[in-house]
Amino acid sequence: MLVALIIACEIGFWVLLAAGLALRYLAHMPRLGAAVLLCEPLLELVLLAVTTWDLKNGGEPSWTHGLAALYIGYTVGYGHYTVKWLDRHAAYRLAGGPKPPGPTYGRERARHEWKLWIRTLAAAAVALGLLEGAIRYVGDAADTSGLRGWELGALRALAIHTVVAVTYTIWPRKAPAGESAADGPADAPVAGSGRRP
Questions:
Q1: What is the pLDDT of residues 90-144, one digit of tens each?
Q2: Which residues of 45-56 are buried (b: 16+ CB within 10 A; e: fewer)?
Q3: How many Cα atoms within 13 Å fall on the side-chain side of residue 184?
Q4: Of 118, 193, 126, whose CA–CA distance to 160 is shortest?
Q5: What are phi and psi for residue 189, nearest 5 degrees?
Q6: Where are the alpha helices (DSSP H) in 96-186?
Q7: Arithmetic mean of pLDDT over the chain
Q8: For the chain, which terminus, N or C, has the lower number of CB atoms within 10 Å?
Q9: What pLDDT score does 102 carry?
Q10: Is residue 115 within 8 Å of 188, Cβ to Cβ?
Q11: Does 183 have pLDDT greater than 80?
């Protein structure tokens, strides 16, 4: 049941996002579109409540609980950023708005990567907090090794993103001749930073 709920939350995220942006820019109903976009966090609250309820009612801690914790952590770290990123691009593509800025080269790109790293740190911290809370909640009554594995996964994602940010700092990409550091793809997401831009 928990896997189905995680899938439903993921699908719901994209459906709400598409509906909100369509209302804002295609139907010219910006307030209604914003209201739909603000419903996004409710999905994570439902997922958190169902995961807690499952553990409270004797559910064995499993990989599904770990996946739910990482999903919620990612949404806390990157959910708002994703919505904002897509909103700017929708405004540009669908409503003739200004081209979204975005650092691609040099120090600006390195600074951008460290800002994304802070989001990854927040996501990992939330996921680790939820996982550790679940481990302490069930105590010795159940095998929690699966949840410990997800903790290592969260730390591994943070470590990989640290390497990416350090790489951009030590070996910054140089802009081609005639192009500034701020030119190029807007807010390009870091490779391997997750399912959403």
A1: 999 988 899 998 888 899 999 999 999 999 999 999 999 999 998 888 877 778 8
A2: eebeebbbebbe
A3: 20
A4: 193
A5: -70, 150
A6: 106-138, 145-170
A7: 86
A8: N
A9: 80
A10: no
A11: no
Location of structure tokens 């790293």: 117
Distant-in-sequence, close-in-space partners of 36: CB < 8 Å, separation ≥ 6: 16, 19, 20, 23
Q: Would the CA dihedral through 160, 162, 165, 169 be positive or negative?
A: negative
Q: Which two tokens stand for residue 175?
A: 């802009």
Nearest to 172 by CA among 104, 101, 114, 120: 104
185 pLDDT above the threshold of 60? no
Is the separation of the CB atoms in 78 and 158 below 8 Å? no
The answer to whether 127 and 149 are in contact (CB under 8 A) is no
The residue type of 81 is Y
Task: Give the max Cα distance, the chain.
Answer: 64
CA quadruple 42, 43, 44, 48: dihedral positive or negative? Answer: positive
- CA–CA separation, 20 vs 37, rounded Å? 5
Give the rounded distance of the alpha carbon of 123 from its chain centre. 7
pLDDT at position 191, please? Answer: 38
Cβ atoms of residues 186 and 87 within 8 Å: no
Q: Residues 6 or more apart from 162 whose CB is under 8 A from it?
A: 117
